[in-house]
Amino acid sequence: ISYMDERERIRNYLAYDFTEPIRDPLWNHIYLSPGLKKVVATPAFQQLAGIKQLGPTYLVYPGATHTRLNHSLGVFALSRRIMHALASFDSAHEFTEAGVRSFLCAALLHDLGHFPYAHSLKELPLEDHESLTARIVLDTPLAHVITADAHADPEMIAKIVDTDLDDQNSK
Prior knowledge:
This protein is mostly helical and 171 residues long. The chain is 48% helix and 6% strand. It has helices at 3-16, 34-40, 43-46, 68-86, 97-109, 129-138, 142-148, 154-161; strands spanning 20-24, 28-32. A two-stranded antiparallel ribbon has the order 1-2. The chain is globular and about 55 Å long. The two termini are 16 Å apart. The mean pLDDT is 89.
């Protein structure tokens, strides 16, 4: 595959595959690919709707009610914008379509291992939410949806989210 072919595929993916809108109070519409919409529909992702992004802050600031799900969609939206901008530069030849897909999935799924009050409990000897996220991403059935529908690499996603994982074999 030539550098131009790969670069063009990445640009086409970023420009044309994101057709599924999700309404968002901050971003108005966040567009997902059909495959990422299936990832968002998984129970692993939907559980983020029950975890407040700012913990009990809403008790003092009633408007601070957004969830890890809202946050994750916003991180994805910004990550897609960044990738779209980077794909226009000559340095984009360093990207692969598989890498872009996996990066966007990692942006979307980065908080799967979050549990309520995780940041408040950092002093306890608990497993980091990044490690938990990596384990969830690599677990079936989510790994199957990521591979079959989003056409991304669960191992690459896990290594992006959990930088402590060995990355000797990744590209």
